[in-house]
Specification:
The structure is a homotetramer.
Chain A (H helix, E strand, L loop, with lengths): L3 E6 L4 H10 L5 E7 L8 H4 L24 E4 L6 H10 L3 E4 L9 H8 L6 H6 L1 E2 L2 H9 L3 E3 L3 H15 L8 E7 L14 H4 L4 E2 L7 H13 L5 E7 L6 E7 L8 H12 L5 E3 L17 E7 L6 E7 L3 H15 L16
Parallel strand pairs in A: 1-2, 1-3, 3-4, 4-6, 5-6, 7-9, 11-12
Antiparallel strand pairs in A: 7-10, 8-9, 10-13, 12-13
């Protein structure tokens, strides 16, 4: 098979360099183009010396014809950019994987409310496939346009999914207390994300409302076959990579043995190469998935209350962004979904 | 007033050095003795060079007569040590503040179950005053024996207290998702707390049961006037100091305005110098209390669910241990409770 | 004595908040004014919640008459600002302590070359006293205008000083390999200082030339009574506070015992409350001075070569900036130099 | 080609898990055995959950016949263990790569002095090839016993090598100021390497003498064709992985243009896939090589003195240990030296 020809829009952030780290050594991929308005003309390996020797590409300004020779384009830009390219790319037969949020929310008015923009191509939102392979494998195989999930939604959805699909818990009262490493905040210059502000410090943010709330709710509602009640509180923790979602739910049958629930999780994810249900009693730590595309899940009944507690960890840049995007690409092009993204996590 | 003569048992850990940092410049205190079996004979400032110039004390082996000249003894040892000294000290008229857990749990059988020991002086447990000044100020003034609270219990109790005392929430379903810096794990040699294990890593632990659960439950039950249902999940976050408790509760009246609840918190803590209720919408970060004795609290209704979310932060070594112990000492000796522990938090 | 009335120009950075942390509880100081163009009107404790309860001040726009009632003004602005205020303040009889570099370099043309500006008041440069009390105590007592030293120059100068004053080493070949925590880079928004850029990363910078080079050279030349040859390489290390200078020099007498050199250091700093010469064989770590105004120094003959190695550590925000500025203020106003800045370092 | 059958002695440390991370996905390698006395019987993926799904091996007790079916054994144990296995393995025709120091120092009496042991097989020391492929490629092709270099020696030797081989500098006065991440200190339980001791802290250690000094001296002397004068000061910096060596040397010809020296470095390493000479003016940071087998080098003339400054960075666990060991294995078995260790560095 000839290599998949890949274009990247906006590869100057952490998601961009993670895409490059993985794609530049992917056996079936060839990155032929990477655009950036701000870094146009600069060698990619000058901005990211870690890539010296792996690519001779320079950033280029995006032009209408830029992507004519691409089989697929990854959009790793801020929200609101991919939707301005989507129609044109699809019309040319170029597939599009958007790592931002433009195509994630099916209800366009909800999307506009949270993202503060009018949608440029609402008619494509319905066509877009939400790129969580553990849910939408079949649709992804033929997808032309993929909405790559957010990092919090990936960890939270995979953690709650078997519970909700199996009807084991009260879906009207779900709590997701999630903690993210700082790369999740992006590579833009800001005082709030300075080392001296973030290090040796821990805080919650956006308790009154976070953009990932409607995305998670949509996922869980689809699994539940109806509305769910979700409390979602994100936190910033002083580390580079990783999301740890601590999920709380009330069992409908308080006496249901945790072993049964564990067996349901194992069955649900038995064929999923990137979801690992740990033995009962395990506390997955974020470094067990660092730089890998894996999601690891631990299950507990909380001491004292018996509430069900699910611990779900991913690397926000890999399974939470670039790795999952490549997993989606693999599926869209008929490859084994694990190609190029199956290395063990880095320790430590 | 002459200075309070102070002995410290077991001052080689992080709680010990925090006690020394504060007591050695406390205007009404004089540390006359500090014991350690393992470091006996070594200058304190050799173990802790930060204290060079502040003390000429050396660690000494504890002897029966060691504390004869003390007004008060702080026990900063592992659990199970203070109870072996308590009777003798009290008989000599020496007050005792235990920074470990020996006297925190009123039900001695519960204590034995969690701490895996027979209690050496159950008759003193009842006499001991639980050293949370915001609850037990009156009793502390005459206390001879104080059980200094745990770090998680301090942050969690202060965060929930006004809600429960005012009967605003369903006390049968309280969730405390708490995150601690690594100093909370102590200064003992262990692989689990190595830099290379803990840094750039986040995890939950002891979901099935943690020793601070019965302590928190006891506090909340006392405030509620009856049993409470508590789910408590502690996490380890890669920072030195700080606890961030994210607390979830269901309002009995879902329509109750958050402004009303905020006013209740402000009224409850109006006269408390070490509890700071932030303006509505605030997200306190742990560094805003770093090295200080302050607890800061933020209040929110969570977007999407309306569940009440309380954010409560302390420094685990200060308000969560040594600072609160000194606050208790101040109260026991008729001083203003803030003496020696009122410096601003270090930033950053 | 009535309190010293203090104004602060530009207190929104890390040096500013460190000044406030120390001055707001200094027994002889009263901060009456703090200016900031960008934060004008905002409560200081809103920007820095750590100061809630310690000040009711708000930032104000600087006006010509702003400082009329001040005894002393601390300028904690970027380089080039203090020199625009200096003449006016001095004419009013207000003392000025500049924490930036405007008055540090006696050769104005050298200053202009390094700082890229024409000096606004070259005639005041000569009058300014370089605020290193361990060198200029006598002049500081009557100083109206103080140039507070840079962080690297403080650690490096104090480390080399006894060697050079005593004529023990070849001053034509001095090497200072210095490592700084990230707060030294300031609080401005920049990609380079993001947590995700700096954390788990170490690098040298400005090897071809750093602004602190002429300042250090000036200090050492003054001690040597003639020009010195200095190689200075700064590095950024992933921590918040602290400078570690590793200093290399060749003894003129290779056989001179290290004990003799150690005695010379001890004698030189015997009366200096903020310089601590450690016992031979010691490796001072930066946390032994964290948040304190202390400089700690270790001395070694390097294994294998016998080259003299001096290890000198300070906290860049305290002895390297705000603490030393307050030390200077104390001296200028006839106080004991340690007032308000003598607390032990925070551990850990 | 059939896969190389690999045994690992003592794989429970950071070097061990790094070997496994790389070898378990190496296309020509098969790990058939991994021994550990302390973890015997435990699944490897239980100790290192990051490896779940990549291996079913359990740790076993080392037995005389354990390695009979191995083509090569990696010894990732503390110093002094590999030498007890070497004779037997070689006699069986099993190649041995020792990641500890047993075979690094050619002068056995020097080795004994520094490592405090009698050498178990001095006759094999001479036979051992020092596994720095950029120096010993030819000998490595036929080596049966390889002494894998230390982390500091790798970074320092590669940084100094072209200078010394070309006779450009005064070899009697070389300074290596080196900074290491904490994984270099190993995975043993110790107070000194606790997160709470190491984080937000920087220090030098072993200034009077470090075991890597004779190893580096041996390397440089070999390049110089005679003795060198080396000052080596190691430091511990709060990060997980990485070594940054800042190297100082005096040019014999002070006027020699840096461009000439740069050209010499480029020529020296032109054919070396794992040494990257950066453009003039570059400051390589450790994260540019994190998790990769690359060494990156920057060259400068220091401002003010004209002294030559070389900046050399590696990942201590990869090029400084496990990655280089695999590079050596590749060479010993006739593979391209880059197989399995050519992925880009992880960013960030």
């Amino acid at each position: 098979m000839s290599k998949i020809k890949i274009g990247i829009i906006g590869g100057t952030g952490y998601t961009g360099v993670e895409l490059l780290r993985l794609l530049l050594v992917h056996p079936n991929a060839e990155v032929i183009l990477i655009t950036s308005r701000s870094e146009s003309g600069r060698a990619v390996s000058d901005l990211f010396p870690s890539l010296r020797g792996f690519t001779d590409l320079a950033f280029t300004k995006p032009e209408p014809s830029s992507f004519n020779h691409c089989d697929v384009v990854f959009s790793a830009t801020p929200n609101g950019i991919a939707m301005t390219h989507a129609r044109e790319l699809l019309d040319k037969g170029v597939k599009l994987i958007d790592l931002a949020a433009d195509f994630r929310i099916k209800d366009v008015s909800v999307w506009s409310e949270w993202y503060g923009m009018v949608h440029a191509c609402p008619e494509l939102v319905e066509q877009a496939v939400y790129g969580l392979p553990e849910v939408n494998m079949a649709s992804l195989k033929n997808a032309q346009l993929v909405a790559n999930p957010g990092c919090y939604p990936t960890a939270t959805t995979l953690g709650f999914l078997p519970l909700i699909e199996s009807g084991l818990v009260d879906v009207s009262d779900l709590v997701a207390d999630a903690k993210s490493g700082v790369t999740g905040a992006g590579r833009g210059a800001s005082v709030a994300n300075l080392y001296s502000e973030v290090n040796d410090n821990f805080k919650a943010y956006a308790v009154a409302g976070h953009r990932h709330h409607p995305e998670i709710s949509q996922n869980l509602a689809e699994a539940a076959g109806g509305a769910v009640g979700l409390t979602f509180v994100p936190h910033l923790t002083p580390m580079l990579r990783g999301i740890h979602a601590t999920l709380y739910a009330n069992l409908l049958n308080l006496d249901q043995p945790i072993e049964e629930i564990h067996a349901i999780y194992e069955a649900r994810y038995h064929n999923e190469p990137f979801v690992d249900v740990l033995p009962l009693g395990s506390h997955p730590d974020t470094r067990s998935v660092k730089t890998s595309n894996m999601c690891r899940i631990g299950l507990h009944k909380a001491g004292g209350s018996g509430k069900l507690v699910v611990l779900s960890v991913i690397d926000n840049l890999t399974k939470g962004a670039a790795g999952q995007a490549i997993q989606n690409m693999n599926i869209m092009f008929g490859l084994d979904q694990t190609v190029g993204i199956s290395n063990p996590a880095v320790q430590p």
